[in-house]
Amino acid sequence: MKNNSLKKITRIALVFCGCALVVSLFVPLWSIYLTAPQYPEGLAMYLWPNKITGEYEIINGLNHYIGMKTIHPDDFWEFKVLPYALGFFAFLCFLTAFLNRKIWLYLTLVLFLIFGVAFMVDFWLWEYDYGHNLDPTAPIIVPGMSYQPPLIGFKQLLNFGAYSYPNIGGGIMFGVALILAILAFIEYRKPKQSEL
Question: Which residues cross the membrane (predicted)?
């Protein structure tokens, strides 16, 4: 009979991943940072699992001139789902460690990767709509110009430099995905044992 149980270190790492995902519920997931000559100190906006903080009201005021939508936390359905999704995956990590079976580790990895890809695609789609769906009656119109922020990295938007990068929570999510992938690889490569 094949040994389908997990290594002790794998189970410890799963508990660590679960705890890390619990932490991600209480810290920002993503940061968007804008710099410009008139704002040398920069303007920051932080996306949490259930809210937006930072200077997004000032950003709204600036974006009005080029016809971009105003940002309102109530417009994001994701804030109603993300806390439960992160809580679910934290629970799944704990459950996998408790059940001590490889199949649960593989299932956790696959589901978390699907969630992570969906999260990034959804964020990119929001940024695309935010940067392309402009008010045609805006005071300033630059023909052919769009203002989609970068998903990750830097992009120049007129006189503003836009930076987008994971914050603590986003780093935790990437880290958990990497740890789960490494654990699954190690467990898959673990020599098969037979019970006598």
Answer: 12-33, 81-99, 106-126, 168-186
